[in-house]
Amino acid sequence: MSLAEFGLRGSWRVLQTASAVSPRALKCLLRRRKPSPRELRELFEDLGATYIKFGQFIASSPSIFPKEYVDEFQLCLDQTPSLPFNKIKQIIEDDLGQSIAEVFAHFDENALASASIAQVHAARLVTGEDVVVKVQKPGVQAILTTDMNAVYLCIRLFELILPNTDKDAVAGLVEEMYQSMIDECDFYKEADNLTQFRTFLLQSGNSHVVAPKPYSQASSRKVLTMERLYGTALNNDMAKGEAGFDPANSLFNALNTWFASLTQCAFFHADLHSGNLLLLNDGKVGFIDFGMVGRIQPEAWQAIFSLFMAISEQNYELMAQSMISVGITREVVDEAALTRDIRNLFDGLNALDPQTVLENKQTDGITSLLSELGDIARTYGIRFPRAFTMLLKQFLYFDRYMELLAPGADIFQDDRVDFYLH
């Protein structure tokens, strides 16, 4: 893209943003009030890719943003209309340097799913394999780059309407969000995540779990072609008994695989809501969608392991001590008060509704629980890396899976769970 073309697109994007922001801003000024969480969430959805991602970051960052915004942005949906097939075809052929007919024997013109950055189609390679093809929408990266300047204005807005917001943490969040979005626009990175996870499964001798094979000959920076896995979401009615397999056994296979990946793989899957764990037709579990992964520095694992052991023993005092020893609290901490707050935090787990958590719907339970974690963070000077919050959220997902598929089992106490982080 030429500088002139980028400038024209950038100017047009600024005009689009202004046209969306102005009516809402005028309404707030006339009423002399700050925008409500709902108004801000609807504005972000109207503005598209960058702002939707920013909204999702707000929803997953209760240690930074107030509860009412975290709650509202749980509803920030990344669902957009699919583009006409002729546009998708053009992107595929331009990026692969071949015609669709040279690569695919069949290509479904109707999208299976569509989000702000990409849409997904079913297809069959000329070599006969059934695949899904993830195609980046045109102009996305230019929009993201242009929008990031406006996001910094959003930070200033948050500083005005939310004076108690941790500004340093927000700045770090925006930097992390920007890098995450740029990575998400490079499908080579997701293909590499798939390859690394499949290598981890092979090297660990894991025959119970699979991940889609990426097809490099049909992939590029904007096109990702992957093996199509056939199955059903792990938490739906078929998975509970109609498929002919023991869903509890499949769940433990998935859980043990994820635990092992924490230290044996370069990253962990950080988006395990229902739909991203499949019970396949052969009884195996499929991990899909590796666009969101978490990474924790190796030197932090021993401290985290100690904290997990404290959780498994349900020893809240030891949990408080472990958090202090991790070095993520202020130098002077009221250990008894921290213990009490941690106890209250984990008591909240019992109030969560399992089905709605797994379907990634808004619930007062999960958002209150994560907001309580944020309250603890602010009270004791704790600043968790976002990767740690992502890690905790996956524990919540697995805990709810267990309630649905293995009632009575305990994620930390059941003998079928290999909790040891090798």
From TrEMBL:
<feature type="domain" description="ABC1 atypical kinase-like">
    <location>
        <begin position="78"/>
        <end position="322"/>
    </location>
</feature>
<dbReference type="GO" id="GO:0016301">
    <property type="term" value="F:kinase activity"/>
</dbReference>
<keyword id="KW-0808">Transferase</keyword>
<dbReference type="InterPro" id="IPR050154">
    <property type="entry name" value="UbiB_kinase"/>
</dbReference>
<keyword id="KW-0418">Kinase</keyword>
<dbReference type="Pfam" id="PF03109">
    <property type="entry name" value="ABC1"/>
</dbReference>
<comment type="similarity">
    <text>Belongs to the protein kinase superfamily. ADCK protein kinase family.</text>
</comment>
<dbReference type="InterPro" id="IPR004147">
    <property type="entry name" value="ABC1_dom"/>
</dbReference>
<dbReference type="InterPro" id="IPR011009">
    <property type="entry name" value="Kinase-like_dom_sf"/>
</dbReference>
<protein>
    <submittedName>
        <fullName>Kinase</fullName>
    </submittedName>
</protein>
